Amino acid sequence: MMRQFAIISGVCFLGYVISYCLPFTFPSSVMALFVLFIFLSLGWIKENSIKQTSDFFLKNMAFFYVAPSISILEYLAELKNSIVAIFVISIVSAILTFMVTAYTAVFVKWIIQRRRADHD
């Protein structure tokens, strides 16, 4: 399990280093996800080599959100002034995310069907 944690930590560190070296701001956690995806796709990291630790993180994900959620409560007075705007932005962005995801899925499905038709 320590080996699996070391692999995941190493990927996160690599994501941090890459984000730091970029000439623009980019979240290191997202970069680490890209790096992990590339490593898994290339077969450099096998799914089984991180499965147990990643399952642990997934099962305990809610625990990792407790501290940030409590930190938000410290700024509740400032947030009260713009709660309507935050709510509207959250709803609109959720709807847009849903729409983009749905259309992307339809587009990918169309591409797959088209390639299958071309090969038949």
Can you describe this structure?
The protein has 120 residues and is an all-alpha fold. The protein folds into two domains: 1-63, no CATH class; 65-120. Helix content is 82%, strand content 0%. It has helices at 2-21, 28-42, 51-59, 61-64, 66-74, 76-80, 83-119. α1 (2-21) crosses α2 (28-42). The longest helix is centred in the last third of the chain and has 37 residues, at 83-119. 5% of the residues are buried. The mean pLDDT is 91.
The total beta strand count reads 0
Poorly predicted tracts of residues: none
Give me the oligomer status: single chain
Mean pLDDT: 91
Helix content percent band: over 70%
Number of helices: 7
Set down the secondary structure blueprint.
Elements: H1 2-21, H2 28-42, H3 51-59, H4 61-64, H5 66-74, H6 76-80, H7 83-119
Write a brief structural summary.
By secondary structure, the protein is mostly helical.
Question: Could you name the key traits of this structure?
Answer:
120 residues, mainly alpha, 7 helices, extended
